[in-house]
Write a structure and sequence with these properties.
alpha+beta; Endonuclease, Chain A; globular
Length: 169
């Protein structure tokens, strides 16, 4: 496609509503309904889910360690990257940019996309904690530095040890 054609398309899109819902504010009830529908479509394979390199690396490590997990586990209106039922542990793999890694964004999210993810992540974390689940986040930087392996191992070891201690009481 020529640059002039791209420019014409861009200008046209700026002048019109892209679809009938542009700029509409949805109620929380509607947002939850949309989320549930999206999760259902993902589960049925009608909406493909593309995994990032960090997600694939964590999955590969969990498989290598023979840790039993459920990928893309749905709870309420949320989807968890990895859920380890035995420990009631949720693992979320977060992109440094899109989820505003505090190492790189010490003042919090900057862009609209970052803010959306940031506040959704806060709601998800609260929901999981309120439902007696443990959660930890693995940052893209940790995957790139290979420090995530120790983080997973230590967390699982501590939770298994705690579970053993609780069962002997």
């Amino acid at each position: 496609m020529s640059n002039s054609a791209k420019k014409k398309m861009s200008e046209s899109a700026k002048k019109r509503l892209i679809h009938g819902m542009t700029g509409k504010k949805h109620s929380q009830e509607t947002k939850d309904k949309i989320r549930r529908t999206t999760l259902k479509q993902m589960n049925e394979g009608r909406m493909p889910h593309t995994n990032t390199r960090p997600h694939i690396a964590v999955k590969t490590y969990l498989l290598y360690q023979k840790i039993k997990f459920i990928e893309e586990y749905q709870i309420g209106v949320f989807s968890i990257d990895f859920f380890i039922p035995e420990l009631s542990l949720a693992i979320e793999v977060q992109g440094d940019y899109w989820h505003s890694n505090p190492i790189f964004y010490p003042n919090g999210p900057e862009t609209k996309g970052q803010k959306i993810n940031y506040y959704r992540d806060k709601k998800k974390t609260k929901y999981l904690i309120d439902n007696d689940m443990k959660i930890f986040h693995i940052w893209e930087k940790e995957v790139n530095d290979l420090t995530y392996m120790n983080k997973i191992d230590k967390t699982i070891h501590i939770l298994k040890e705690k579970k053993c201690l609780e069962s002997t009481k």
